[in-house]
Structure formats: structure tokens, C-alpha cells
Amino acid sequence: MSRLHEMMDEIERQRRRGNFKGAENLAKLEMKEYELQGNTPYYNFYRGFLWYLYDFPFDAMVHFNNSLLTEDRDMFYVHKFKGVVNLENGKYDEAIEAFEDAMKLVSTEADTISILNSLGNAYLRAGNTQRALELYSEALQLSYDHDLDEWTQITLSNIGVAHVNMGDYKGSLKFFEDALDLARALDDARGERICLNNLAGVLNNMGQREDALELFMEALKKASQIGDKYGMRVAYTNLGYTYRLLDDLDKAMEYYKKALDQAREIGDRPGEAMAQYWINSLREGQKRFVAP
């Protein structure tokens, strides 16, 4: 296993644990080391990875395209993160192509499962739910076969999301509940936060607002405990949304404002735009309500 492979495994492990700053610092240290060595291809990779973390997709892609890595199978990570950047920017065909290129260079079962999930995510967002479920099922079986519990938990969550997309809310609950049990067994706080949000979202869709609030509050507490500020922003937004559905507009405004502040703190531009939209909508509604 190459140095890059070992470092990216650790960086992704730290991110799954909610230690985003630690993951960022590891990437910065590697980038600086390669810069001092004059190793331009690997410097470009970590520079691109950091631009991706900072949500600058164009800059990330420029550096990934200049990352002509030479060690055994390290181009796997270049293709993988080009796929991730394309996926997050709605370029699904380009994402699928990049993930398929990465699949040709996998070297471990975990890599294979990772790319199967990534391909599933791309097909799901592109509207091909059946193909996504096929890929997730393949990933799930591999994770069972090789006792890769972290990937089992991630894949179960993805299958749950696919069922939600199909409108099968009851069917999704089992997958989310199993994923939550695994996240707790693994002490995966970020995974637990994601599972709680997923479960609460389903309960909201089923009209069980109070139960949803309870789980969103639990997700917020978990995110706060591990310093997962993005997770806190997500929880604040979801709490605002749920209180709005309950017609408790003061509470909704309170949590949307918290979401806005948190989004601005971490540079989460989509989260900031969403929170600002709902704050403006609530204010406009209040103006109409008090108008003579």
C-alpha cells in the first residue's frame, strides 16, 4: 500500500469520525511535505483535495488534472475525487465516468465498496434508482463478506435513501435503523448523526413531527459533541423545517437563524442560501399577516 493510500484512508477515517479539522491538517502537512520535496504531482493532488474541502470545485479540478501520480495505483484517488467533485456539482455523467476509471484501479475490497457506493450515489441523483440499488446491493454483500462494518453501515444508509426516493418510507426505516445500530456499535459519531437525521426525515415524511423533532435534537447533540459544525448546520435547518411544518414560526425562525450563522462560520454556501431563503420567506409571511 502506497503512502498516499495510507494517508487517504486515515483522512477519510477522520472525516467519518467528524474530525474535519484533523483531516484538513493531515492533508496540509502532506501537501507541504511534497512541496518541499519538489514533488509536483503529489503536491497538486493534496492541493486539489484541499480546494475540494473548501468548496472550490473549479480549482480542485485544475489541480486534480495536474496530479499525474506515479506510484502504484495512486491515480485511483485522482479519479475518485474528480468523480466526487463532479457529483456534488450535478455533473452526473462525468462523475460516473470518473468513478468507473477509479474502479479499474481498486486495490482493496474497501476501495471497491467505496466506488460501488459512489457509483450508486451518482445513478441515484441522475434518477436511475434501480441501477443505484443494484450497485448498493453489490457493495453491501462485499462488506458482509469481508466484515467491513463501517462500509456496511454507510451502504445500508444509502439503500435507505434510495427507498425514500422511491416513496417507500416504511421500507427505508429498517435500513436506517440497522445503520444506526452499527454506527453506535462502531462508536461512529458522525455516522450516528447522519442516521438520526435520516430517520427523522422519514418520520417527517410520514407526518410524525414530534418524533422527528426528538431525533433531530439527538442528531444536533451528537454533532455538537464531536465538533461537527456541518452536522450542526444540517440539524438546525431540519429543526427549522420541522417547526415550520408544525406552524411554530418563532421556533422555525430561531433555528433557521442558527443554521445561517453556522453556515457562514464554516463557509457552507448552499446551507447559507437555504437558511436565508427560509428566513426571508418567514419574514415576508409575517409582514403579510400584520398588514392592515
UniProtKB/TrEMBL annotation:
Gene3D superfamilies: Tetratricopeptide repeat domain (1.25.40.10). Pfam families: TPR_10, TPR_12. The keyword Chaperone does not apply. TPR repeats lie at residues 76-109, 113-146, 153-186, 233-266. It comes from the Archaea. SMART domains: TPR. Keywords: TPR repeat. InterPro entries: TPR-like_helical_dom_sf (IPR011990), TPR_rpt (IPR019734). This is Uncharacterized protein. It comes from Methanocella arvoryzae (strain DSM 22066 / NBRC 105507 / MRE50).
